[in-house]
Amino acid sequence: MGGSLAAALRGGSLASSIIGYDLDPAIAERGVALDLLDAAADSPAQAAGAADLVVLAAPVSAIPALLAGIADALAPAAIVTDLASTKADVVSAARRALGPAFARFVPAHPIAGGERSGLDGAEPDLFQGRTVVITPESETRAEAVDRVEQLWLSCGAKVVRMDAVRHDCLLASVSHLPHLLAFAVVAQIADQPDAQDKLSIAGPGFRDFTRIAASSPTLWRDIALANREAVSQQLRGLIALLQQAEQALVAGDGQRLHQMFELASRTRRRMNGDSDGR
User: In whole angstroms, how large is the CA radius of gyration of the chain?
Assistant: First the structure.
């Protein structure tokens, strides 16, 4: 995600200089080699020290340490934002770490990406037409919000503002739970003796449904844990629905299955703008 943002900024000539840092120095050097970065820093503080805009593009679990690492190095007017998939925990961490600079922190979540990870998977047009949610707090300065909004608009994204807790509740349903489900379905097959036979004849439906199971396990473990209350609530609802489906199968109740399938089909068609999904 961070690499794609750097590529978009580079391609649109939207940044005069891009300095990057990674816990693994080889990754930052790879960013320089790919012309995504102008230079690799030795520490978060060094990367942030001369920046007017600092973007934290790291797993959720790494954000608190990064915030602590840059807090004392920030320029007086520097704006800080992030790309994390959960927001309430990041807001709390920023409030603790940044002190007065918290007013210049704009939490953001670009709803984009795919199963490919790493700088070699960076795509400059990744954010074109995608939604970016920002969750400013009451203390957040208007000029900081405007700057981050303009950043994403310049990358071709649409920007939506909402409360951080509301964001986490919504994303638990439409992002975090689906990822958990895709991982679970593939893991359930992988544990079976005839897993390779099954996977060898898997069609495009299975591949489309489970594509996101190829995503970073570490990243999605952290996201699920960071948003565990909301994800657990959605998971309980799904389990209850699956139990109803199992009961319908055992009873041979086609009507109950059809009602579930019809509701899902109609809702999904409506997402695609299909008039028959009314």
Answer: 21
Rounded alpha-carbon distances, angstroms, from residue 153 to 3, 11, 149, 158: 17, 14, 6, 6
Residue 275's pLDDT is what?
A: 52
Tokens encoding 13: 């000539």
Q: How many other C-beta atoms lie within 10 A of the C-beta of residue 67? A: 24
Backbone dihedral angles phi then psi of residue 83, each to the nearest 5 degrees: -125, 15
Low-confidence ranges of the chain (pLDDT < 70): 114-117, 274-278
- Backbone phi, psi, residue 163, to 5°: -65, 145
Tokens for 10?
């580079």
Confidence (pLDDT) at 113: 73
Who contacts 95 (Cβ-Cβ below 8 Å, separation ≥6)?
Answer: 102, 137
| pLDDT value, residue 278 | 45
Instruction: Write down the pLDDT at residue 33.
Output: 95
